Amino acid sequence: MRRYLLIRFLELIPIFFLISLIIFFILNAMPGDPLLTMRMENPRAMTRDPAKIAELRKYYHLDDPLIVRYGVWLWSFLKGDLGYSSMYKQPVLGIILKRLPNTLLLTVTAWVIGLIVAFPIGIYSAVKKYSFFDYFFTVLAFIGISLPTFWFALMAIIVFSVWLGWFPVTGVQTYGVSGFWNVFFDRLRHLALPALVLGLVQVAYWVRYIRTALLEVLDQDYIRTAYSKGADERRVILKHALRNALIPIITIIALDIPYFFGGALIIETIFSWPGMGRLIYEAVLASDYNLAINCLMFLAVITLLSNLLADILYVIVDPRIRLGAKAV
């Protein structure tokens, strides 16, 4: 099993380099000169001396071939030296580590909300197929799939923040709040609406996948045999049917983890949530390419790790894969 997971991990390495190459070349294809951008933001900080400018261009490898600049940047990234942000005038690594916990809090909460809501609905829709409940949530799922995330977020703000006043509109915490429990519940109120929006958008997809995967298993002969022997329906569904339907479900749910980080870019921007998504948005607008490229690489690493997580869950859930992993 260890060798199986090691092979899966090694397979991610060339994918990592390919992703880093694509991200680097795309961002460097954007118009603009980093030194010119820095000079426009703070003219006093940049010298007009041509020799000094040439020295800076050499220091930042701006006149080197693109592939050389890629190699220098990748080696620095692997060492943990991410350079400085021209927008914040701070080390990039410190900025990312400050914003990353907020994004993880938002995305993990939304992911858990999605699982809690999608699984009961998907299972019940499969068991009670073609019932009013099944048709009702099928229609809701198609509506949810069709709605743009930003529109859903704006409507949620209008209804629950502006009209009802249940949740704050933006931010992560109210200024001036003190005390452990006051801060805890205040942050929870700020988290609730963006996490619900991000999680419920994905529920529409997951309900359809869970229903479809479970229906395929429920039509198998061994399920009908279990029913004919008088086995309890809940036991048949949860122990036999659902467990065998988990492979395609795990594939979708584990590989959708990067979606939450991508969707967080929109949600964090709309709700002014200080996370990685909003940071990338601000970095691109400010032409802070060094900050943007390193943020995108962090998200790429998370995407690759979610693929590895899916492989690990396969081994845990399916004995056949576990036996095959031992044979590798």
TrEMBL record:
Localization: Cell membrane
Residues passing through the membrane, by range: 12-30, 104-127, 139-167, 187-207, 245-271, 291-317
Presence of the UniProt keyword Zinc in the record: no
Residues covered by the ABC transmembrane type-1 domain: 100-310
UniProt xrefs under InterPro entries: BPD_transp_1_N (IPR045621), MetI-like (IPR000515), MetI-like_sf (IPR035906)
Key words, A-Z: Cell membrane, Membrane, Transmembrane, Transmembrane helix, Transport
Gene3D superfamilies: MetI-like
The name this protein goes by in its record: Peptide ABC transporter permease
